[in-house]
Design a protein that fits this description.
- It contains seven helices and 13 strands.
- It is an alpha+beta fold.
- The protein folds into two domains: 72 residues, Immunoglobulin-like, CATH 2.60.40; 141 residues, CAP (Pathogenesis-related Protein p14a), CATH 3.40.33.10.
- Strands 2-9-8-5 form a four-stranded mixed sheet, with no helix packed on it.
- Helix 2 packs across helix 4 and helix 3 packs parallel to helix 6.
- The longest helix has 18 residues.
- The radius of gyration is 34 Å and the shape is elongated.
Length: 249
């Protein structure tokens, strides 16, 4: 009996040590997939990049439910195309998350600002031709004014939307009320407007010559009463182009 006890102790000890070193399986982490925005409100032309955080490995795929309203790149960059609602979905290994994108139409002031930037080159060309005519007539050059140019673009947009050339605004007020909208102070003001069919494209030289060849429009272009000018361009849905020159002292 005395000889067996040490063996029993050794066996018990061996079992105890073995039990200590048996690894306990860790509980698997729950897979997650989250998107940075559940809802987005954008205006036409806006962009926004959605981001996904996940515990999964792999490449996220992106999809738009309506590409006419909003598109999305492989990196989650959303571009608002036209008014409406679309769902942007991100997928990875069977899991998906989505964002509701509501696209609204830009207001006219935002559109006018965009047009001033979009047609910057053509606007500067109209300014160049106008000042060439003034120089030949012995008049000082006009200075292109930012607020006047946005106001002129607004006026061109009004005509492009109504497809009607008029010195009266769609609400029935005078064309010069747009100057108040843009907080332009003046003692003297004038407006030239013109229209060309889409076949001409946006053509600064053609429209400048049209104005110069018309006595009334030429009088505005060469008047010594004016020192500033704003130039606006807008293209109608049928492709026709509407131009505006606004002059102030």
């Amino acid at each position: 009996m005395k000889r067996r006890k040490p063996m029993a102790i050794l066996l018990a000890l061996a079992v105890f040590i073995t039990a200590i070193w048996i690894p306990i399986p860790a509980q698997a982490a729950k897979a997650t997939l989250k998107i940075s925005h559940k809802n987005l409100n954008l205006t036409v032309g806006d962009t926004k990049t959605l981001k996904v955080t996940t515990s999964l490995k792999g490449k996220v795929s992106w999809k738009s439910s309506d590409k006419k309203i909003a598109t999305v790149t492989s990196k989650g960059k959303v571009t608002a195309k036209k008014p409406g609602t679309a769902k942007i979905t991100a997928k990875l290994k069977g899991k998906s998350v989505s964002c509701k994108v509501t696209v609204k139409k830009k207001d006219m002031k935002a559109q006018a600002k965009d047009n001033a930037k979009k047609y910057k080159k053509q606007i500067e060309q109209v300014l160049k031709y106008t000042n060439q005519y003034r120089k030949a007539a012995g008049q000082k050059e006009l200075v292109l004014d930012t607020n006047l140019t946005r106001a002129a673009c607004y006026r061109s947009l009004e005509m492009a939307k109504t497809k009607k050339m008029s010195h009266t605004r769609p609400d029935g007020s005078s064309c010069f009320t747009i100057l108040k909208v843009y907080k332009v102070n003046y003692m003297a003001a004038g407006e030239n407007i013109a229209y060309t069919s889409k076949g001409y494209g946006v053509n600064a030289k053609v429209v400048s010559q049209m104005w110069y060849n018309s006595p009334g429009h030429r009088a505005n272009m060469l008047s010594s009463s004016y020192g500033k000018i704003g130039i606006g361009i807008a293209v109608a849905s049928n492709g026709d182009i509407y131009y505006t020159q606004l002059f102030t002292n």
